[in-house]
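User: Just a sanity check before I run the rest of the batch. Below are the structure tokens for the first item. I only need the designed sequence back.
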């Protein structure tokens, strides 16, 4: 059978897999067109930056690597946190064959070829690591295809993902893998990486080229613009280098140079976990009466390009869920903010969203209506279709009147204070109380009214029972 991955009639193990990502000196002399981030990948685990919790002294993953007991795993972390590099170094440190697939470009045929190679490796008593970049892009059926081979130990699967694996990786596969969370690189780690990058760029240029000098403040500006993404940071540095060397009299790279090359790109995915993290933070800071936090998280979502009408709708939801009748104006504020944005658009309409957010955060809080709605839904699920009391039914026909529809109904506007006590619930649950107002804001007055009205209704109920 022809092997399209490695050539030849029979699948053969790749004994020099690590050489695919450890460039030789001859490569550098001939000119390496790969991005700086690729050229600067560490060739030894000791040069790997970041992830101290996993790879520091006595780190759990480091112990497994040293013992050559590497399990199948999912590396979950933001872009540029070192997932691919770590997977390659694991293969190198454990002398395993390293085969990589991209979930974006690979299909079933590619997976079958990998399995054939892994079987050939086993004949030579060589273990195989299959690295799948962006594993969350494989569908359920494709992920299912790896299960038997992972279970049989034919391959050690290392998947890389920027998405929460709880949602993006199927449960059977997830249960057979350990999940390791990778953090964005810290400032000092990024500065160390950038200094390595400057040194590497100067090594690669011939002696006639002017030395690349980057001010420390400029390096820190790159760090600030990169949000922990090592690949983005090195890309910015490489652009700065190429532009500086085109100048007749190169000068040190400054903060102004870096800012002119790029603008901050916030890590965000409108349908991914970061979206849900930020909207959760916005909702919870509103609920906890923190206008500073609420405005910050709103600003973060606006800066990341979130749909403004989605945010407006969520503010309406917060007004009725967390404030309710403690301040009925909260709903008006949010609805007006929604209409204002629809009329003005960005950026003018965004100020209305900010005003509504601040209003909700400082408003008195009550979830009494929200909880009452949940209790009502639970009661309906439990008791089913209960009959409407006869007194509450309409009686437009003689037959209905003869059957007792609307009998003994008293018109409330004829009563004192426009109130006549009567049973308002089905007989089976006539004494249930669903809405329990708090003593916050306007609900304090509502509570006093309800206590008087509920007391009168209970008397009617007790009379009916006797």
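Assistant: Here's the designed sequence for the first item:
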């Amino acid at each position: 059978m022809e092997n399209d991955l490695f050539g030849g009639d029979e699948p053969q193990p790749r004994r020099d897999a690590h050489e695919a990502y450890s460039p030789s000196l001859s490569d550098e002399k001939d000119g390496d067109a790969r991005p700086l981030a690729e050229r600067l990948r560490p060739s030894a685990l000791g040069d790997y930056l970041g992830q101290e919790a996993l790879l520091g002294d006595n780190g759990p993953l480091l112990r497994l690597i040293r013992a050559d007991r590497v399990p199948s795993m999912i590396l979950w972390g933001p872009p540029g946190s070192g997932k691919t590099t770590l997977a390659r170094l694991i293969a190198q440190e454990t002398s395993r064959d390293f085969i990589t697939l991209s979930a974006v470009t690979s299909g079933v045929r590619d997976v079958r070829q990998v399995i054939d190679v892994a079987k050939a490796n086993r004949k030579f008593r060589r273990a195989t690591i299959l690295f799948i970049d962006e594993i969350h892009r494989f569908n359920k059926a494709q992920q299912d295809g790896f299960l038997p081979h992972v279970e049989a130990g034919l391959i050690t699967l290392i998947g890389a993902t920027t998405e929460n694996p709880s949602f993006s990786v199927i449960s059977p596969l997830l249960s057979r893998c350990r999940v390791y969370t990778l953090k964005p690189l810290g400032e000092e780690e990024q500065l160390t990486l950038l200094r390595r990058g400057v040194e590497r760029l100067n090594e690669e240029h011939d002696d006639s080229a002017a030395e690349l000098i980057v001010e420390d403040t400029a390096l820190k500006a790159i760090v600030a613009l990169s949000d922990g993404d090592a690949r983005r940071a090195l890309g910015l540095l490489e652009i700065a280098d190429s532009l500086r060397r085109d100048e007749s009299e190169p000068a040190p790279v400054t903060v102004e140079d870096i800012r002119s090359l790029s603008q901050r790109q916030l890590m965000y995915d409108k349908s991914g976990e970061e979206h849900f993290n930020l909207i959760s933070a916005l909702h919870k800071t509103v609920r906890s009466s923190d206008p500073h936090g609420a405005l910050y998280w709103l600003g973060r979502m606006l800066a990341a390009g979130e749909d403004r009408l989605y945010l407006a709708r969520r503010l309406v939801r917060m007004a009725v869920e967390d404030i309710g009748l403690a301040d009925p104006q909260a709903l008006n504020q949010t609805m007006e903010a929604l209409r204002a944005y629809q009329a003005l658009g960005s950026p003018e309409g965004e100020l209305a969203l900010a005003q509504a957010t601040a209003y909700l955060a400082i408003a008195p809080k009550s979830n009494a209506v929200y909880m009452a709605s949940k209790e009502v839904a639970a009661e309906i699920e439990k008791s089913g279709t209960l009959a409407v009391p006869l007194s509450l039914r309409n009686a437009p026909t003689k037959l209905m009147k003869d059957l007792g529809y609307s009998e003994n109904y008293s018109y409330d506007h004829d009563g004192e204070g426009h109130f006549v006590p009567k049973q308002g619930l089905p007989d089976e649950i006539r004494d249930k109380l669903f809405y329990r107002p708090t003593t916050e804001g306007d609900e304090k007055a509502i509570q006093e009214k309800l206590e008087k009205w509920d007391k009168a209704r209970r008397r009617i109920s007790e009379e009916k029972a006797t």
